[in-house]
Design a protein that fits this description.
Blueprint: H1 2-70, H2 75-78, H3 81-91, E1 97-103, E2 109-112, H4 126-133, E3 139-140, E4 144-145, E5 152-161, E6 167-175, H5 177-187, E7 193-199, E8 204-208, H6 225-232, E9 236-242, E10 249-256, E11 262-269, H7 270-288, H8 292-374, H9 380-406, E12 415-417, H10 419-425, H11 427-434, E13 438-443, E14 451-453, H12 455-473, E15 477-488, E16 496-505, H13 512-517, H14 535-545, E17 549-554, E18 560-567, E19 594-598, H15 602-614, E20 618-622, H16 625-633, E21 640-644, H17 652-662, E22 668-672, H18 677-680, E23 687-689, H19 694-705, E24 711-713, E25 716-718
Parallel strand pairs: 13-15, 19-20, 19-21, 21-22, 22-23
Antiparallel strand pairs: 1-2, 1-6, 3-5, 4-5, 5-6, 7-8, 7-11, 9-10, 10-11, 12-14, 15-16, 16-18, 17-18, 24-25
Helix pairs in contact: 1-7, 1-8, 8-9, 8-15, 9-14, 11-12, 12-14
């Protein structure tokens, strides 16, 4: 019958469902009980750790007070009764301290907080032997029975040394193990448990329950689960297992005590933890039959609540982790911005100095060249002095080039460069620069993409890095040149493909302070005359101006790795590097011309005018852009205007624009100190870089006056593009 059949089903369900529910609830409750027990154990070991730290820190303070008291005194003064009284005063208020002692290098006690037999020596004590062998700082001994106090204790000791570092005795305090066990008994749960204070080598200093032993120190076997766990996780942890000779399985937690080689451990019997579970089983069994439906409903609601709680906690943890990561990224970005602003400020200052210095060098080099022409050929001494001055000025010009490389004020000619071919082409130069004591190894992958960079400047950067590596290795070691491809998706570099070209040396390395400052201009750790402090600055500037970055990694005595991250170029864009062009013949038919020279610096104006007059040109001088316009409006017959770029009131570029507007066919040549060459490169005006020689100046003028346009200025071809819609 259907009704009977349904009744049987319900009866069976009323038996089976409570049984299944009872079993599931029992297993779940067992897991919770063990978990709660482990939490309680961890909480107890935290309390024990805090207590132990305070006790040992107090002991350190006592030792410090004793050190201060006997500092600079001889043993006769230390043996005075006042010292022992002082030690007794230190001991009295401290329940954990059994006694305080001061002994000499032979182990004889000279002062103590308790009465003692003066014939007794402590030279055989473990802590005395350890301090005599070496200055180990604060040393904690194994427990021992005190000869003066007849009480079981362990020592916290410090070494006493003579001014020249020789062993001169020991200051120690004897700590009471009972103080720890009494505290553990009062502060830990009542369930059957084990509480330990032990050294890292397994020697037990205090334990609960106390075995009451007075003989040799008790030690945990090296193969015990506790010591194996400490070896794996030395700062602290928890586990379930057997670790004491009684063979009882316990839930343990342990933690390292501050900086001391000590551990506190606390374990509760697993059977004791499960006693609560057994009680719960009896309760569940009593109510399962009568309230099966309610139990099922409550269990389902409880399970849903736990799941919701876990999900909420997971969301909260994810949100917190996201917030922490966001904070880390923001702090890192702020640090990068601060560093970039600092380097930008230094770069602007450096570029300004280089600009002014180039103006001075223009006047110096020009005057020296004119003087060299007028010097009698037979005056060897004057010729030598002139050449020295000329070489010094040229070295100054080279220095400004490095300054401008750092400040990113130089004009680059980036192209797709085959790094493997570039390094191979430099092999002889690198070998001669590094010397026979440096072994060079290259590691390049097959199919390496070309880099978008100025090849000439990259060669100079690699040479600077190689020379720095050689100096760091003292001329002896190994240098590895390597390359790889990387893809950047975020950060301070633009997303995209990059080619990393780097060097690793086996030199002395750098500490964090040096590493943080090594790219600053003029910062060097080399001796006087051995470096300008501009090599890495130039490499840094090249990387930044090439839309890449310089990455340096170094540690003292572990060498240095320098990596240039450069944008990758398409292989199809790579062209072979052209051979050096033969010198061009000077254009014919230029002859004597009238050139207006515009410069606000009287020295540069006079020097430039003298070079042009010496070359056979007529010169009209103007000390400002406005004066130049007034002269031109007055009808002066000028065939070319040579103007400085940076001038008060009106710049050279603004002057050139005004001249193009009023006198479209009058050529203008800009003389620049390089700091603004990158801005002027797209202006369409021919440039001549300061400091320039008479030959470079003459060639630039002839290039402007004798088409086709396109001139070589200081080794750099700068095309001349006329103003739109006009012919110069």
């Amino acid at each position: 019958m259907p009704s009977l059949r349904l009744h049987r089903v319900l009866v069976a369900a009323s038996v089976v469902m409570p049984a299944l529910l009872f079993g599931a609830a029992a297993l779940h409750n067992r897991r919770d009980v063990l978990r709660d027990g482990q939490v309680s154990v961890s909480r107890s070991v935290t309390i024990m750790d805090e207590h132990a730290r305070k006790v040992f820190e107090t002991g350190e303070l006592v030792l410090g007070r004793v050190d201060d008291r006997i500092q600079g005194k001889d043993w006769a003064a230390i043996a005075a009764p006042e010292t022992s009284s002082f030690l007794s005063g230190l001991e009295a208020p401290l329940a954990q301290v059994v006694s305080v002692w001061v002994s000499d290098a032979e182990g004889r006690v000279h002062a103590g907080s308790q009465a003692w037999d003066r014939s007794v020596s402590i030279a055989s004590r473990e802590f005395f032997e350890a301090q005599r062998a070496a200055d180990v700082g604060s040393f904690v001994s194994a427990p021992f029975s005190g000869r003066a106090t007849q009480r079981r204790s362990f020592a916290l000791s410090r070494r006493r040394s003579t001014p020249d570092g020789r062993f001169d005795g020991v200051v120690h305090i004897a700590l009471n193990p009972d103080y720890f066990t009494q505290y553990y008994a009062a502060s830990t749960p009542e369930a059957s448990h084990v509480a330990l204070l032990m050294r890292a080598d397994g020697v037990i200093l205090a334990r609960l329950p106390d075995t009451g032993g007075t003989g040799a120190a008790e030690r945990i076997p090296a193969e015990s689960r506790l010591l194996r766990q400490i070896a794996i996780r030395p700062e602290g942890g928890s586990f379930l297992g057997v670790t004491t000779p009684d063979g009882v399985e316990r839930a343990y937690a342990y933690r390292k005590v501050g900086h001391y080689p000590l551990y506190v451990a606390f374990g509760v019997d697993k059977a004791s933890l499960l006693g609560r579970w057994h009680d719960n089983l009896r309760l569940f069994g009593a109510v399962a039959g009568a309230a099966s439906f309610m139990l099922l409903l409550v269990s389902w609601l409880a399970l849903r609540g736990v799941k919701a709680e876990h999900a909420a906690m997971a969301r909260l943890r994810a949100a917190l982790e996201s917030l922490r990561e966001e904070t880390r990224q923001r702090e890192a970005a702020e640090q990068r911005v601060r560093q970039a602003q600092k380097m930008e400020a230094v770069g602007q200052l450096t570029g300004g100095i280089a600009h002014d210095f180039n103006n001075l060098l223009t006047a110096v080099l020009g005057s020296l060249q004119l003087l060299r022409k007028r010097l009698p050929a037979d005056d060897e001494r004057a010729t030598r002095l002139l050449e020295n001055a000329f070489q010094g000025a040229q070295r100054g010009a080279s220095l400004t080039q490095r300054l401008l490389a750092f400040s990113r004020g130089q004009a680059l000619r980036p192209a797709a460069v085959d790094l493997v071919g570039l390094v191979q082409g430099m092999s002889e130069l690198l070998r001669s620069s590094l010397g026979p004591g440096v072994r060079v190894e290259a590691q390049f992958p097959l199919g390496l993409a070309p880099a978008h960079v100025d090849a000439n400047q990259l060669e100079l950067a690699l040479l600077n890095l190689a020379v720095n590596a050689r100096d760091a290795m003292g001329g002896q070691g190994a240098l590895t040149i390597f390359a790889r491809e990387e893809r950047v998706t975020g950060g301070e570099l633009r997303p995209g493909r990059y080619v990393v070209l780097g060097m690793t040396d086996t030199g002395c390395g750098m500490d964090e302070v040096t590493l943080a400052r090594c790219v600053e201009p003029f910062f060097t750790t080399k001796g006087v005359g051995k470096g300008t402090g501009l090599g890495l600055s130039m490499v840094y500037g090249l990387a930044a101006q090439s839309n890449g970055r310089l990455v340096l990694r170094s540690r003292p005595e572990e060498g240095t790795t320098a990596e240039l991250w450069l944008p990758a170029a398409e292989a199809s864009a790579m062209v072979p590097r052209p051979a050096a062009e033969p010198a061009r013949p000077r254009p014919e038919g230029v002859g004597r011309r009238t050139v207006m020279v515009v410069d606000d610096d009287p020295l540069v104006l006079a020097s430039t005018s003298s070079m042009l007059e010496d070359a056979g040109h007529a010169v009209v001088e103007a000390s400002s852009a406005r004066q130049a316009l007034e002269i031109l409006r007055a009808g002066a017959k000028v065939e070319l205007v040579l103007t400085d770029q940076i001038m008060p009131g009106m710049t050279g570029l603004q002057l050139a624009t005004e001249i193009r507007r009023q006198w479209p066919v009058l050529p203008v040549l800009l003389g620049t100190g390089y700091t603004e060459r990158t801005e002027l490169a797209g202006s369409g005006l021919p440039l001549v870089g300061k400091p320039f020689s008479q030959a470079e100046l003459t060639a630039a003028i002839e290039g402007c006056l004798a088409p086709p346009p396109g001139l070589v200025v200081g080794g750099t071809v700068v095309p001349f593009r006329p103003a739109e819609g006009r012919t110069p």
